Amino acid sequence: MSKYIIVNEDFLPAAAASVLITDLAIQRGYGIFDFFKTIDGQLMFIDDHLDRFFHSAAEMHLPVSKSRAELEALLLTLMDKNGLPDSGIRITLTGGYSLDGYTPAAPNMIITQAAFKNPDFNAEGIRLITHEHQRQLAQVKTLDYLMAIRLQPLVKQQEADDVLYHYNGTVKECPRANFFIVTQDNEVITTANGILKGVVRKQLLKMSNSRFSIREKDISLEDLRQCKEAFITSSTKNILPVTAIDGQLVGDGTAGEVTTELAEKFKELIVQYVELR
Amino acid sequence: MSKYIIVNEDFLPAAAASVLITDLAIQRGYGIFDFFKTIDGQLMFIDDHLDRFFHSAAEMHLPVSKSRAELEALLLTLMDKNGLPDSGIRITLTGGYSLDGYTPAAPNMIITQAAFKNPDFNAEGIRLITHEHQRQLAQVKTLDYLMAIRLQPLVKQQEADDVLYHYNGTVKECPRANFFIVTQDNEVITTANGILKGVVRKQLLKMSNSRFSIREKDISLEDLRQCKEAFITSSTKNILPVTAIDGQLVGDGTAGEVTTELAEKFKELIVQYVELR
User: Fold this and answer.
1) Fewest beta carbons less than 10 Å away: which of A93, A137, B195, B238?
2) What CATH number does the domain containing A239 carry?
């Protein structure tokens, strides 16, 4: 953890940062957040993340006490005080100190920063198990990870790394990442509906061109069985191959060609983003 | 709020009770709780509530550091220190101070007490609006009230008092109460599946006899339209008539005869419970 954490107006030593137990996050799990990386001191895809942060807050009727400009200034001050050019920053907005444990009050905003190194491409990939579940309010980045955390022992027991949700025959997402397949025709597809729309996912959809067709379209369980490659995307993981699902290898069980090439292209995009700011 | 709150081993002044922001309740909304009344110093239906508390904890893989006897002793000490014979007590168990913001750690247990007077029967009742939603892990009393709290402005706008969830054509529950109908044949029915099984609901089902048939069976939306009376049950509200649903009166829009008689019988049950302990 970093030296300083912001709780509302205050920069607090990380070990001392606390909230009263009347906060609606503790009472009712009520709140939203967003998370992004910094690389070489640059706030990665910050416009997309702040768009989503303000969208999530509005969807949950949580007023943000700071303007976007004030929030950006606060983030830069935190960067300065903590001296961590390569990091992950999380902005959490809770339901606040509720008088009756049910009605939202003025939200508490908590901003944490932790050292985090942008990972290299991991060709070994990860193994998923599937689980039938549709996240509630999927398009909002809420605090709700009940199902994901409850499933952790099962994931471990199945010798897997993470969970892939599906519902009513459609593949959805991982708890903290979007999911993509590469079809036998080399089409790159990610689920369109009932998911949180990730920032890396958005960047990837913009990379669709004559060489790669990358688009959103609901993925059926049959599509999943037939796919040639699979990968997940997230702000911490970038593009990460999925090499097995429910114990069955995807393709030959190693990172596929399209996945590897897209990961390379995304790495270039990150380098450009950092250099051009 | 009371004078003292318990956080793990400590009795803290209520205004000072806090948890670090690394708690998994704040990071991921992860935790469970239970809530019960005290009347004249008696812990109401405490066996049922502790059964459910330990069940919820086990379902979410959260170890409880105290035995049941230790927990009961702790509750009595809290009662003693706070001097509130008529109260509501809440025991919360969170995912603990997670090192990575995702993996559960040793849970934090928080016990709060607040003055609360057992309410008289409210013949005026309440108005509900319906909303299509199935609570995840419905049989576990988790911290997740995202949907309920998000819907509060809509409830107010519709001049109603609370929400009734239904899903796939079946009536479920209110966010903090079970739901019952009285059919045209004077059968009393409460939804069987996809709900949190409340303690007052359980007591009521035990009251089924030759005079009243009270049973659990899934209630369809058509059953809802046809019903003669409706009411909700909860530890804070006991039996409370529902007099309108989505702006349509239930029966003649006042507390029905069966509801009123059951409320009277439940009041007697409470008196007996308090006197016999």
Assistant:
1) A137
2) 3.20.10.10
